[in-house]
Amino acid sequence: MLARDLISTVPVLHPMDSGARALRLMNEYHLTQLPMVLENKYLAMVEEDDILDLEDPDTLLENMEYNGVKPAIPEDAHFYEALKVFSDQKLSALPVITRENEYLGIVTRDILLAVLAQYNGVKEPGGILSLEIEPRDYSLSEIARIAESNDVILLSVNTITNPVTGRLEVLLKTNRQELSSLVATFERFKYYVIKYTITAEEEEDTLKKNYDLLMNYISI
């Protein structure tokens, strides 16, 4: 999914808008940043904290000082790239622009999180299995083959490197609640370490509830 597929229609700010108006819009749309746009050109990202620091909230945005950082993402960028920018710059909204710097809209944090959850099968029923393995032993094709041999479909596969041990954690989201046979198969391969499994149906319900609570919190 590309950035242009995630665009939200949120009002933009104009250089002649006041800080007070910017705050009202941010509060209304539950954001801490909004883009300032003039003649369809993206000028700057207006920060809530900068407005709160103003002595006069009616100060025009064009008279504010900006740090020169203009976070944005091209319309044809993958949403993983948007996720990286969100994480690196602690954003609540990210402008989407053309190669000519024309403003198209924004991607919001809650939309990005919802898409990420969709791609990772968070809302789909099924158990979770976490493996630990040396990077040299990692083989996605073998992991998939082992899963298929146990009639298990992998809905998503994610990896992260432990900065202390250098080992990979491989997180498998599956379509099956019962994973004992899959765990037993992995355990026969000595280089796979089972860190944990989440297979009980009530625990799956807890995950869904936690996800829904998180989404509701973000929307507040």
TrEMBL record:
CBS domain ranges (all copies): 64-124
Keywords, alphabetical: CBS domain
Keyword match Iron: no
Pfam families, sorted: CBS
InterPro entries listed in its UniProt record: CBS_dom, CBS_dom_sf
Superkingdom: Bacteria
SUPFAM superfamilies documented for this protein: CBS-domain pair
Gene3D superfamilies given in the database record: CBS-domain
Full protein name: CBS domain-containing protein
Organism per entry: Chitinophaga agrisoli
Upper lineage: Bacteria, Pseudomonadati, Bacteroidota, Chitinophagia, Chitinophagales
